[in-house]
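REQUEST FORM: STRUCTURE PREDICTION
Request ID: SP-0412
Submitted by: Lab K.M.
Chain count: 1
Length (residues): 421
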Amino acid sequence: MFNIDEIYSVTHFVRLCKNSIEKHIPQSFIQGEISNLSKPSSGHWYFSLKDENSQIRCAFFRLNQRKIQFTPENGMSVIIRGVTTLYPQRGDFQLIVQQMEPAGVGNLQLAFDQLKNKLRMEGLFDSENKKEIPEYPEKIGVISSSTGSVIRDIIEVLKSRYPLSEILLYDTIVQGENAHHKIIKALKAADDQKICDVLILARGGGSLEDLWAFNEEELARAIFDCSTPIISSIGHETDTTIADFVADLRAPTPSAAAVSATPDVDAILYNAAKLKKYLLESIKQSVESNKYSLALLRQRIIDPSQQLLLNAQKLDDLELRLIRTNKRIIDENKRKLKLLISQLQNYSENFIKLQKNQLSNRASVLSLLSPLNTLSRGYTITQNKKGEIVTSHNQVNSEELIITQFHDGKVTSKVVNKEDN
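STATUS: Completed
RESULT:
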């Protein structure tokens, strides 16, 4: 039989285990690989930390995440500092994470690499998105601290190199917690004013932690969104920040940034002198060439009186040519007209002769066919008093008058007697 005093409820037993674990297992540093990472909307992170043989559940609450700069991912090897406990609701053994760093690389370095890869994939570093630095800026804005040596170096270089430009300082802190917010505010103020031809974003050297404000994603996107060209010069020549990758041009030092932003006034004066000399030589050559051309033109110019005589002679020649041409045309037309008249005469004579022949032939035919020609051979034509031609003796009666047509006249007679043949 069980001793009733030795029987625990589940809740009492879990609480006993929890108190024992938290009391006897100290705060620990553990290295392992992240798996089953979950990030609910509460902001807390839950995952398992495992090695080849074992794993343990972990909870990384939002308030403990404030100092973490990188983004944990499944498969990432990390070192965590945490306290051991039991989650009573499930009876799960777990670690409450208080600190996390990537194994083998620093926290900030990993965050830098992750953000760099992210922004590169989005195209923020692409050369086609870079704005051109103006060749002769009238106003140069400098975004930096007014108390550092950086601004003094930049002003010294700009004054000696290109004193024609105006320098505007947009003062900001460049280091410390939330420094990037101050830098963004100064950057937007300079860009919104639309008075600077180029902006220089600069600070001196320092550790990765000191320069971290220039590795913040929010600042990188603010630089990318600026309409004014930006030259970055963060830290020493060996230092590289995210801001350097996004800016339109990176200079290794603040002094080099001032050089990149301006032309050299001495070089400008030297080139101007060379250009002046070249222009003078060109003008001299052009004048000599024009003098020679003018001399040639003078030789080709004819005296007006001589030109008038030449024109008069040409006019006479044209008049004679016109007279000869008209005479030739008239003679040619006369010859053609004479030929046409001759042809017409020959044609008329032949036509009349032909017509006479045709008329004679037709008269002969008509003569042969004429009734009078028939009558001349002894034939007559008899008509009754009505003028009808009588072709039979039966058409007339006794005592009727008839008219007989001879070839040379007519005879009227009376029918006395009719007989049949």
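NOTES: The chain has ten helices and 13 strands.
Reviewed by: T.R.
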